[in-house]
Amino acid sequence: MTERDRDVTSSVPSEDVVPRQRIQTTDAVPVPAPAPRTDGARPEPARATVFDIRDLSVFYGSKKALDWTSLKIYRNLVTAVIGPSGCGKSTFIRSLNRMNDSIPSFRIEGQVLYHGHDIYARATNRVEVRRRIGMVFQRPNPFPKSIYDNVAWAPRNLGLKSNLDERVERALRGAALWGEVKDRLKVSALSLSGGQQQRLCIARAIAVEPDVLLLDEPASALDPVATASIEDLMHELKHRYTIVIVTHNMQQAARVADRTAFFSLDPQERVGTLVEYNDTNVIFSNPADTRTRDYVTGRFG
Amino acid sequence: MTSAAPSELPYDPTAPLTPSGNLRRRLIVSRITQGMAVAAAFIAVAALAIVVFDVVKSGASVLSIDFLIKDPSQYGVGGGIRSTIIGSAIIVGLGAVIAVPIGVLIAIYMTEFARPGSRIAGLLRMGLDLLQGVPSIVIGIFILGLITEPRHQDTGFAGSVALAIIMLPLVARSAQEVLRLVPSPLREASDALGVDRWRSIITVVLPTGLGGIVTGSILAVARAAGETAPLLVNDSTAAPHLTFNPFGPMPNVPVQILTASEALNPAGFATAWGAALVLLVLILIANVGARFLLARSRRKLTG
């Protein structure tokens, strides 16, 4: 066991001499891939691209956190982002709706195109970006308000005040929480359990009917039962929304995602890089890259 | 492995579990320090108790319904405190109306808009701390030159502005501390929902910190209510009649206490004590109420 480990690590440096080219070749793979696969397994037509990320690099001050990432995210699919701690998963997903803007030293190179529009263009307003691209965080963060007011808050502030009750009910049903809370909508959201709070945060996010939902390790602070309910929910939500989920948990990615992107940490430069991006079953059963194989088989921490 | 050979231990593990070695000495030192800490705490409380007791003892005898509903007499001896209490309330209230919105806005700027480590915010913080340390008589003289002298007249309003300057750093700093306690995931959540920052501040951040902001403001008001120097300089020549016009001379409690205590007639002392007692009680009520509000808002934050 240990000897094979050593074998793998000794082979890594030789690959990393030319990391940039490696990534581009892996990136080239999934782009033609969808067409034949759709013919075989999926009845739906060619998928529309929601995000077209081109050569994205992210810096915090002088430190590079994410290196030359290029990938496309498709409509109405669940796309999982997996990888070890510090590999830039969260940095990546937070770059998609400009949540990193609040970090003073944050800077990007490359482009994030959303339906063809550059998220980071000068004319782009980040509030408008987040209006269409909602986000749910690792720890449930309901407002210290009632359940109803949590869900109704964003619609109220965005001027979507007609049929507010209906909208709140729809969002809570969408987050599979309506049955549990319909009799106590005026109760403080902080009295809910962790799993319920997280579903409330999802309800709050979908109440404004975003186009995309970004989920940054949404179940990592939850127990297995609550995790299962969040995963079930994702299968429902993808009919309406495009979902990108960051997760530590590979089984979770295998269970919920249609496409999976594996990020890794370049051992020499300590920079996160995209290693491989493909259909989830390919990533987990027949990955092209040895680093992906090592990670998904649990040989790499 | 370590438990395999007890004979190697530097002590006998089977001995009774009573203090051994230098533990006895350490326990004595510990007890002495603990005692000194408790004594110091008692001294602080005792000082408050002695002041309150003295004021109550000397002031209670004058307290009566008459004392509360009558205006002071012309030379500070006898009479009540109706006009001065109302005057003080108007002066302090007006000061709070000036200071609280500005103070809260300063706090919002420093916690919500200034970049972390921003030089402007740092200078602002230092400026507020310095302002807090400026003697109130200096502020009084400043307002004398700014408002009272050009108008050739004492006014309650001049006192209000001076008290507002005293309250401003207290309000701003306490509001800043409270806003910093508002969890940043709440801001993240509202950002991620595509709502503007200022709407998030008004509908999420401020309501969450409201209890603390109110508390800080009440404490600042209580502090300003007892402030004497700016009023002596800017508003000490009022006739003792009830007035609601802050743009003229207004009678107020601190000046009344001073006048009464300087009266040659010893009955003036009694009036001074009585007014002091009323002032003290009002400030204590404000303090306790503020702390109650703060505890309530903490509970709200933690669920």
Description of the structure:
The complex is a heterodimer of chains A (301) and B (303). Chain A is 40% helix and 23% strand. Chain A is an alpha/beta fold and 301 residues long. In chain A, strand 1 and strand 2 form a beta hairpin. The two termini of chain A are 15 Å apart. The N terminus of chain A is likely disordered. By secondary structure, chain B is mostly helical. The mean pLDDT of chain B is 87. Chain B has eleven helices and no strands. The interface between A and B is medium-sized, with 32 and 25 residues.
Task: Say which CATH homologous superfamily of the domain at 85-259 in chain B is assigned.
Answer: MetI-like
What's the gyration radius of chain A in Å?
A: 20 Å
**Residue windows where pLDDT falls under 50 for at least 5 positions of chain B:** none
Number of helices of chain B: 11
Name the average pLDDT of chain A. Answer: 83
* Helical content band of chain A: 25-40%
N-C termini distance of chain A: 15 Å
Basic shape of chain B: globular
CATH H-level superfamily of chain A: P-loop containing nucleotide triphosphate hydrolases
Give the ordered list of helices and strands of chain A: HHHEEEHEEHEHHHHEHEHEEHH
On the 0 to 100 scale, the average pLDDT of chain B is 87
